[in-house]
Amino acid sequence: MARYLVTGGCGFIGSHLIERLIAAGNDVRVLDDLSTGRKDNLPSGVPLTVGDVADPDLVNDLMGGVDGCFHLAAVASVDRSREDWRGTNRTNLAGTITVFDAARRAAGGAPVPVVYASSAAVYGDNQNVPLVEAATVGPLSAYGADKLACELHARVADGVHGVPTTGFRFFNVFGPRQDPKSPYSGVISIFAARIARGEPITINGDGEQVRDFVYVRDLVRYLTAAMDKPVPGAPVYNVCTGVPTTVNRLAEVLADLAGRPLDRRHGPPRSGDIRVSIGDPSRLVAAFGMACGTSLEDGLRDTLAWL
Ligand code: NAD
Ligand code: UD2
């Protein structure tokens, strides 16, 4: 049993991670400002501090005596990063440096490992798919730029300050508890909620754009495995399946699973929409000995059942 700090633990991915940590008998404390997360995403009895991940006194305090930190708190939206550039940078980059800095002396003055969320957004519109970790990065948003900067500071944390870090470039994550009501929500949560209610969906453009959808319960296994065996060198891994799915196909599969007719309308393409985003999971599978094994259909069934 170990003691962990989880930042952003009231969010979609954080809540699944905490479920897994608690089931394994760990002691978990959470820092979240509840800007997008919800208190009732947490299992009962998990202590929550409502506050800002970029507040150094608070983070130093919460980091005291832990065995490691899972850092997921972020403004997890490209649109929001456009509207509030400086505010997003404060949370996403300054917040991450605050976490790394506090981890330097968490265990009675000694460093503890940090496992943190990066994003496929670091690749921008690189169409050299499937994307390997060594592919050219070129973020197209403040969100992606900050995530890339987090990876650079993770190297500083490791190389200069002795804080072991592991970064994960999440592709399009989906599953239960991804809030369909949020304007920043992912396509699966939006489509699933609408199709289940028999409402029409809007496909942006021709619907032939391609994504690599990762089921959230597959993803959190890597986070805990990385914490269990930290390695030097600040590694970064894609978290992806390598399986391409078009938005059209996604809609069809969802309607099929929900047993509803598909009422689809096509709107204009979304400005700046990436045409093809597929990751290569080879490095992930080699390092952790497991692939993201849940099929899209099974993950979607689970998501529909939660609604
Ligand atoms: P989410 O919005 O559900 O979770 C983020 C959590 O961070 C929320 O609970 C929010 O309240 C909290 N938070 C935001 N700002 C904070 C601050 N200043 N201080 C403390 N807490 C704060 O999003 P998610 O999808 O669970 O994302 C988790 C992580 O994964 C994020 O770092 C995100 O950038 C990354 N990510 C997600 C996806 C995806 O497909 N969902 C893809 C790539 C990367
Ligand atoms: C994802 C991430 C984003 C960033 C980016 C990096 C999510 C929610 N967003 O954006 O944070 O990391 O990847 O590349 O994971 N669509 C429709 N109709 C809708 C909603 C969406 O057609 O009602 C389309 C959308 O135009 C896009 C695809 O579905 O082509 C996926 O959209 P998304 O918002 O779920 O995710 P993405 O890949 O744009």
List keywords for this structure.
307 residues, binds nicotinamide-adenine-dinucleotide, Rossmann fold, 13 strands, single chain, binds uridine-diphosphate-N-acetylgalactosamine, 2 domains, alpha/beta, 38% helix, UDP-galactose 4-epimerase, domain 1, 10 helices, seven-stranded parallel beta sheet, two-stranded parallel ribbon
What is this entry, summarized?
The chain has 307 residues and is of the alpha/beta class. The chain has helices spanning 12-23, 56-63, 78-83, 85-103, 142-159, 187-196, 216-228, 247-258, 282-288, 296-306, and strands at residues 3-7, 27-32, 48-50, 68-71, 114-119, 165-170, 172-174, 201-204, 210-211, 213-215, 236-239, 245-246, 264-267. Strand 5 (114-119), helix 5 and strand 6 (165-170) form a beta-alpha-beta unit.
Structure report:
The structure is a single chain. By secondary structure, this protein is of the alpha/beta class. It has two domains: 197 residues, NAD(P)-binding Rossmann-like Domain (Rossmann fold, 3-Layer(aba) Sandwich); 99 residues, Alpha-Beta Complex (UDP-galactose 4-epimerase, domain 1), CATH 3.90.25.10. Helices cover 38% and strands 17% of the residues. It is built from ten helices and 13 strands. It has a seven-stranded parallel β-sheet, with helices on both faces. The longest helix is centred in the N-terminal third of the chain and has 19 residues. The mean pLDDT is 97. The site of nicotinamide-adenine-dinucleotide has 29 residues, from helix 1, strand 2, helix 4, strand 5 and strand 7.
